Amino acid sequence: MLIAAFLLSLSVLVGKAGNRFGMPALLLFLGVGMLAGVDGFGIKFDSSETVQLIGMISLSIILFSGGVDTSLKAVKPIWRSGLTLATAGVLLTTILSGLFIYYIFDFVAPEYNFGITQSLLLAAIMSSTDSASVFSILSSSRTGLKQNLRPLLELESGSNDPMAYLLVVILIKIIENGETLSTSIIGPSLMMLCIQLLLGVAGGFIIGYLSLKAINRLRADNEFLYPVMMIACVFFAFSITELIGGNSYLAVYIAGIVVGNSKLAMKHTITTFFGGFTWLVQITMFLSLGLLVNPHELITPHLIIPGLLLGAFMIFIGRPLAVLVCLLPFRSFTLKARLYISWVGLRGAVPIIFATMALASPDVLHARFMFNMVFFITIISLLFQGTTVTWMAGILGLKEDLDERKFNFDLPDEITASMKEIQVKPSLLADGHMLREITLPPDTLVILVRRGQRYLVPTGNTKLFLGDTLLVISEQEKHLTEIISEK
Fold first, then answer.
1. Distances in Å between the alpha carbon of 88 and those of 17, 67, 82?
2. Are strands 418-423 and 444-451 parallel, antiparallel or unpaired?
3. Which pick of 121, 206, 435, 457 has the fewest CB atoms within 10 Å?
4. Rounded CA gap, 304 and 317, in Å?
């Protein structure tokens, strides 16, 4: 317990300090785990099975929480392009990177003698962008993105893990069965892929809907039992979908979307709990991954040289080519937007967890080298791409100001009224500075005023000043829209 307390507190402090310098917190969590491991403080931890279990639980929570935060209204304009990147993009990245590994590693790492199947396996492990990294960095940066890029990136990262997972599973089975890639293998594999995706989507929708009904009918006296029930629903979505042969990671993400875009009892309590809980499982997952690796194995020339070459290929050639090809049918994105999407192809915990699957298989040759390679490239990606997410958006002219909320307050879903924050501007004070002199639509009230760091409960005689922020509630959302558009 003392060790756990020390590692958790150190991770939080290091993550907070790193944010000031633009360092991704998840990279620093990995660093803390590596520092605590055999080459640092001496904690021995070499169980890939335990890491897989921790990763499975953590990713379930992370993907579900990401689904809850995904607005269908925001996703609707870009769902086709997002799912194309999540499926065809992953497949194309795997093929391009696999061919690069197969031909280049003969020269830079001939001692490992990677065949085409193993080359594709290593590429598939690293083919998906990591949802934990993307969600975390985009949230921490507090930067708005033009052209609906943020929901597109979140949708892609949240939904491309299933495709990569299936490719990894299929390729490991081919290696274990001693088979080679052929049309007889590709046909059944594609069928398996379609079945798992369909069952994953169906399982996510059905279990998400049933979870929603269960939570809304719980009627618990203690509001903190609602998040506990929701965790149980997440595990139901994952495990039941897995049992029926569907893709469980896709199911929990879809279930999160269903829950997050519906009326939910105690929604504020549940989302607040999951916010902290998601960070806890992320820290735990990255710490365990850092403990599993032996840092001295990452600084050998036979890994650094091919690792740098493969990392550079994936960042500057493989990912951009896959993105540009997949987005050809979608004309709404500018070239700058496509370049930015190519850049935010962050690797993180998911590829490392997929690498432990190869590590756990006795038939995958040089699995430890694969694991170290994936870990090395993940560090490069987080260090090189993760630190420049906001900077690149500014360079490409895609950054926009994000309205920061002044009131951390949400109405329960049971209340049908709408609430918005409105900043006091000269046009709002055209008829006078007193609150009673402002003309408001019917059934509309100003319930709070924020002035600097002070919060005021207003009356009709409250004098308003430029820069004040009003918290306005109305029976109809269109009334609030009228205020904003007119004032």
1. 38, 21, 10
2. unpaired
3. 457
4. 19
Mean pLDDT, residues 300-306 taken together: 90
Q: What is the 3-state secondary structure (H, E, C) of 381-437?
A: HHHHCHHHHHHHHHHCCCEECCCCCCCCCCCCCCCCCEEEEEECCHHHHCCCCEHHH
d(CA 150, CA 398): 11
pLDDT top residue among 257 and 112: 257
b/e per residue 165-174 (b: at least 16 CB within 10 A)? bbbbbbbbeb
Average pLDDT over residues 370-395: 90
Residue from 3, 23, 29 nearest 284 by CA: 29
pTM of the model: 0.85
At 306-348, the pLDDT tens digits run 999 999 999 999 999 999 999 999 988 999 999 999 998 888 8
**Residue position matching structure tokens 């907070």:** 16
When pLDDT is cut at 50, 70 and 90, the band that residue 183 belongs to is low
User: Of 357, 283, 344, 270, which Cα lies nearest the Cα of 64?
Assistant: 270
List CB contacts of 133: < 8 A, sequence separation 6 or more.
Answer: 24, 26, 157, 346, 347, 348, 349, 382, 386
Instruction: List alpha helices for 109-247, DSSP H.
Output: 116-125, 131-141, 149-159, 161-176, 183-216, 225-243
Query: Whole-angstrom Cα distance, residue 391 to residue 207?
Result: 40
Whether 85 has a pLDDT exceeding 90, the answer reads: yes
The Cβ of residue 132 has, within 10 Å, a number of other Cβ atoms equal to 25
> Contact at 8 Å (CB) between 386 and 200?
no
